[in-house]
Specification:
7-stranded mixed beta sheet, 3 helices
């Protein structure tokens, strides 16, 4: 059962009650906990991210089970670019993440989106942007969001505008 991008499960609480359980987003192996807090938070972040952009885009919800290709040191880099291409195989998300502090000699690995989210939770909010989107962050600068290579406007007083403002302070 999916709610947004998270695969949740129904588990017996007692002989007459089922409870929703979700991944704890703490790392591998996946541990399910009796909650929907992460699931609802991520779904809201996805909605607010898309609503922060003009022109408006459609949500394209991946699954935490899908894969992403990442730079080896992405989790510790302050300068990143993520972009979304059309997936080529089943269970590929089409997402890529590059550490911009490394040149062309960068090395890459494939992770599940779940593992990616555990290592870089601040990027979860962007993972429902559609194919052809890219987001770039560099230290001390506001984020650059593009769709089909065209810059998108970040709506004043929106979720992403608040994030941009916090990066500058």
């Amino acid at each position: 059962l999916n709610i947004g991008w998270v695969g949740v499960k129904l588990a017996p609480e007692n002989s007459s009650t089922l409870r929703i359980i979700e991944p704890d987003f703490q790392g591998l192996p996946i541990n399910f906990i009796p909650s929907v807090n992460h699931t609802l938070k991520h779904y809201r972040q996805h909605l607010d991210t898309v609503a922060s952009l003009k022109p408006q885009l459609e949500l394209e919800m991946p699954s935490v089970r899908d894969s992403i290709i990442v730079s080896k040191n992405f989790a510790s880099s302050p300068n990143l670019r993520i972009w979304h291409e059309t997936p080529q195989e089943a269970h590929e998300s089409g997402w890529f993440c590059k550490d911009l502090t490394v040149g062309d000699d960068d090395t890459y690995e494939q992770l599940s989106l779940y593992e990616f989210a555990c290592l870089q939770p601040s990027l979860i909010k962007y993972l429902a942007l559609p194919v052809y989107c890219e987001v770039t962050w560099e230290s001390g600068r506001t984020m650059d969001v593009r769709y089909k290579n065209q810059a998108l406007n970040i709506v004043t007083d929106s979720y992403l505008a608040a994030i941009n403002q916090s990066k500058l302070n």
